[in-house]
Amino acid sequence: MRYVAAETVEQAVALLAGETGDARVLAGGTDLLVQIRMDLIEPDLLVDIKRIDGMFDITPENGGYRIGAAVSGAMLGEHAGVCALWPGVVEGFELIGSTQVQGRATMAGNLCNASPAGDAVPALVAANATVRIAGPDGTRDCAVADIPVAPGKTSLGKGEFITSVYLPARSDSAADAYLRFIPRTEMDIAVASAAVSLEMEGDICRAARVVLGAVGPTILIADQAAKTLVGTTMDDAALDALATACSDLASPIDDKRGTVEFRKDVVGVLAKRAAKIAQTRAGGKS
Amino acid sequence: MALDTDKREFKIVGTRPLRPDGIDKVTGRALYGADTTAPGMLVGRVLRSPHAHARIVSIDASAAEALQGVKAVITAADFTTANNSHSQAVLDNCMARGKAMYHGHGVAAVAAVSEAIAKQALKLIKVDYEILPHVTEIEDALKPDAPVLYPDKPAKRVPEGTPANVSHVTHFGHGDLEAGFAKADKIIERTFRTEATHQGYIEPHACLASVSPDGKGDLWCCTQGHYNVRALCADFMGMDASQLRVTASEIGGGFGGKTTVFIEPIALALSRKANKPVKLVMSREEVFKASGPTMSSVTDVKIGMTKDGRITAGYANLRYQCGAFPSGTIELGAMSAFAAYDLDAVKTDGLNVMTNRPREAAYRAPGAPTAVYPVESVVDELCQELGLDPLDVRLKNAARKGTKASYGPTFDDIGLVATLEAAKAHPHYSAPLGPNQARGVSCGFWFNFGGNTSVSLAVNVDGTVTLTEGNPDIGGSRASIGMMAAEELGIPFDKVRTLVADTASLGFNDVTDGSRVTFAVGLATIKAARDAIQKMCARVAKIWDIDPEAVVWEDGCVKPAGDNAGQYEPMSLAEIAAISVKTGGPIAGHHEVNADGAGVSFGVHLADVEVDPETGHTSVVRYTVFQDAGKAVHPAYVEGQMQGGAVQGIGWALNEEYIYGADGRLQNAGFLDYRIPVASDLPPIDTVILEIPNPGHPYGVRGVGETPIVPPLAALNNAVSRAIGVRMSALPMSPPRILKAIKG
Amino acid sequence: MSKIHVTTNINGDAVEYLCEPQETLLDVLRNQLNMTGAKEGCGSGDCGACSVTLDGRLVCSCLVLAAEAEGKQVSTIEGMADGEELHPLQKKILEHAALQCGVCIPGILVAAKALLEKHPDPTETEVRYWLAGNLCRCTGYDKIIAAVMDAAAEMRGA
After folding, report:
1. φ and ψ at A270, to 5 degrees?
2. Beta bridge partners of B709
3. Is it the case that residue B549 has pLDDT exceeding 70?
4. Could you tell me how many CB contacts below 8 A there are between chain A and chain C?
5. What SS3 class is residue B313?
6. pLDDT tens sequence across A120-154
7. Is residue C104 within 8 angstroms of chain A, CB to CB?
8. What does the pLDDT read at residue B264?
9. Residues B492-498, mean pLDDT to the nearest whole number
């Protein structure tokens, strides 16, 4: 295995595109280095992108924020602007691993790991976040939702890598929240999770986006479930309908972390609770 | 043996001095198993079976041996036959002989100049396996058509007709069960299950071995008992025990899991073959796959109670699986189950069945938690059904001095009643509970061990004392042992340095296990100090030219026994030591003993939980441990044992489990999915130490380490069951299990 | 396989080493630099025994490549005491008898120091969550948490 710390985006792309063997991008390394250590992968080349300009930047852009691909959970959590605008995105990202892992882990890495249980992803998708991708054919933007295609697989092409994540602007009466279920209080992989992003108008929910994690082969966008909230005051009946719709949509598996039955039940509970938190947050802003 | 406690006012015992190895351990300079090196050292790695059960048809290591940088490859053929069947099982668990018995079983090992080359070499070893049917669960292994682990080696000492995989059968009890159950107003019968857990020490097994062609060897390793390591390894290597020196490193947790050997013989064999030092360190994955899990268990319990809370009869049928080798741990379980109760009619039947899992290693009170959990859960259910207070019922039935224990002996002074009364009087027991909260109670018990101990105590000319003992310090024993020496000698604690000696320096010492060290090593230390005192008295009598009977030891000085002995200024230890080399030579005390009289230990735990009714998630919101320590030598470390044991039990109760797939492979060999409690999972663990002196120890000390892991299983089970209104009967009470119970 | 030359700073001292691409910072600290205070408990970022800080950020050194330390400031347990003077956290761990086997303690100390630098006045719950990635199997965490709270109070008073 070789290790190269790229100095520019172009150099990183050239290295990744030019490698005939398995080339991997190293940002936080909290998944990648574990996989190497466990002999799950044997890359021929690691391209460290952390010395490239801008990779640690958080920049206001059109009312939203562009977040460099190497920004860690700890760094994002310290950014008051992003925390205020997209608290659910930040809380999802900050749930990944320990304080130590937070010192290194990145949203782009969590996304490219393409696990349906990645805690950073549901809230990013609920936020309609996009990523900017550099590659041999130049730069393109892509919805976060379109990156993971199957467990462990992304839509990125040969030589491509994510250089930043963009969180869009939103109104003052909008907010988001993310909740996951784990058996302990920390250090576990999500058994089920739900992100809810809302736009309120007074007491009425005007728009909602609900995304579920760890209950399918990729994250699930629960548009039908989200509709149960729209036009309601998010009373108990609406929230129960949301929970039922989420449980119905979920198509989880039995594994060492949970059962089908448990995940279907709990994902509905999480969606309901996350929706309430988002509602409170949106109200608090207006 | 005279009990000094009543007449004695302790000056040092009972205080909380800083531990002597503390600064090394907070600055990172303490040397643990993996922290040392030797010149020219090679790196060892073990090839492990990917199959749960497979015949090893052949092993071709020629390609690995030919790889540049590889210095040795070994298999089971590189060891001798062990000198008894127990040791043979230990050896066969290290390295498969003929058959791989479980997923992760060692098959071959290499030593190479680097880790990368060692890893590459493992891939070049060709093992031809014939995959055999496997069995990992107790009930499956007991079926008539179950795969048989040792078809050619039927178990001895089990009755005819016993299922083929059963290695041990055991029975305890007394009285007329039928008559007892006939007197009951309420009888509850229930079956309980527990999953295998792991000791979960943070330091993986690690060792550094060096063997030369003349049969001399040195081994550095993290172990709870280096004398035992020496005995086993010398046997497996065909070496003389005197030629193998084993040095115990600092140990990063053991909890019973480091009472045997896993990699040490492998490192020695590699070193002998390569004629170079070999360092071998397990990965965390290997720790889970190939070292010390506990039993899993299935237990039927039947208990009868009168309306006013008297237990009329108790019966338990325990089935343990302890992995792919015979295990007698079931006996300790069957003995522990009803130990807290004074019963006229009680019986326990037990069996151990072998499965394709790693060989069980001891884990804190081995056998007891899984036996006490079903009994304490049914007692609680009876209390709930009959509307009785669970502590009152336990007090009514509690074992006390004179009780004939369910496993045979009659108890001497024990602290169960005092412990139950302390729990009842504690504010925790009457504190109000919030919504979805409930309180659980359980008793716990451990036998406590004594055992073989050898201690040497040198009085240095500057008036200080060097104490040499042979048991690794796993939780502050250098402090507690040194305190007892200082107490006995009447010198300040910081004038004593306690060293853990290598196997060449003392007579045999049993393993640091069974909560034996503070009791047995402490006892031997006190006796060694008294031996030195006797020598100092004789020395002073000689100096004063009076009869040795005419001097006494008082307040750290030799004094004339009375006016008739003559008028002499008392001589302190320091004064005697200063002139010792001119008055007859150095002064040292020794003691060698196979200590008995350890004195059993009881504890009571109170656990408050809150269960999320929508997710089945359990939070422990308050926890208090009450335990009899006999005499707490260093109370802070006694509390530490009580807290740490309780939390291991909480982990066992709520989230820890070995998970096997249908393919017989372990699915969660890492700290990510083997979920031990983390700091944010827990409330403060409050402790109340009771001191009911143990008549078997000069200061009244009882072991304290094991008992605290016993009560949490039932305390949590009882709390959760009361919180959700459904009786739970399987551990761990993971959220999916609890939610399923809530939803019916 | 060609080695990578790394120039870095560890506990205030300039350090140079050669490493293999796959070697972790933990490997180099322990095997080359004889700084064995950081322990490998899991190799997967789940136990925290290898905690160090990298440019002030708390990380698991088993999840950092040795090559990534180029130009960085690394702090380890070996740099925590100031000569003979122990750090208040080290003192409080000893005073509270908060260590039993002690193998997790270097990682806990490094992590707790990073916490108190960021939050000098944490709640007990904050301490517990911050240290959730530092597994301890001996103590049940009780005395460790008490020691950190006590050290924080002392450091605020100082």
Report:
1. -65, -40
2. none
3. yes
4. 88
5. strand
6. 999 999 999 999 999 999 999 999 999 999 999 99
7. no
8. 98
9. 97
**Residue spans per domain, chain B:** 40-132+203-252+258-290, 296-448+599-743, 450-595
Same fold, B40-132+203-252+258-290 and B296-448+599-743: no
SS3 B277: coil
Question: Which CATH class for the B450-595 domain?
Answer: alpha beta
**Residue A7, amino acid:** E
- The pLDDT of residue A283 is 85
Q: Please, what CATH class does the domain formed by C4-79 belong to?
A: alpha beta
Closest by alpha carbon to B324, among B163, B82, B136, B95? B136
Using an 8 Å CB-CB cutoff, list chain A residues near C49. Answer: none
Which of B659, B672, B736 lies at the smallest CB-CB distance from A259? B736
Judged by a CB distance cut-off of 8 A, whether residue B735 touches chain A is yes
> Given this model, what pLDDT does residue A167 score?
98
- Compute the nearest-CA separation of B285 from chain A (Å): 9
- The pair of structure tokens assigned to B345 is 């009619």
Q: What is the CATH number of domain B296-448+599-743?
A: 3.30.365.10
Nearest to A184 among B614, B655, B667 (CB): B655
Q: Which CATH superfamily is domain C88-157 in?
A: [2Fe-2S]-binding domain (1.10.150.120)
**Would you call C137 and B253 a contact, using CB atoms and an 8 Å cutoff?**
yes
Domain B40-132+203-252+258-290: which CATH number of 1.50.40.10, 3.90.1170.50, 3.40.50.300, 3.20.20.100: 3.90.1170.50
Q: Are B519 and B560 in contact (CB under 8 A)?
A: no
Instruction: Name, in order, each residue with C-beta under 8 angstroms of B453's C-beta and a sequence gap of 6 or more.
Output: B469, B470, B471, B509, B510, B520, B521, B523, B524, B591, B592, B593, B594, B595
A160 Cα to chain B: minimum distance (Å): 30
pTM (two decimals): 0.97
Whether B654 and A183 lie within 8 Å, measured CB to CB: yes
Q: Which of A188, A258, A269 sits opposite B675 (nearest CB)?
A: A188
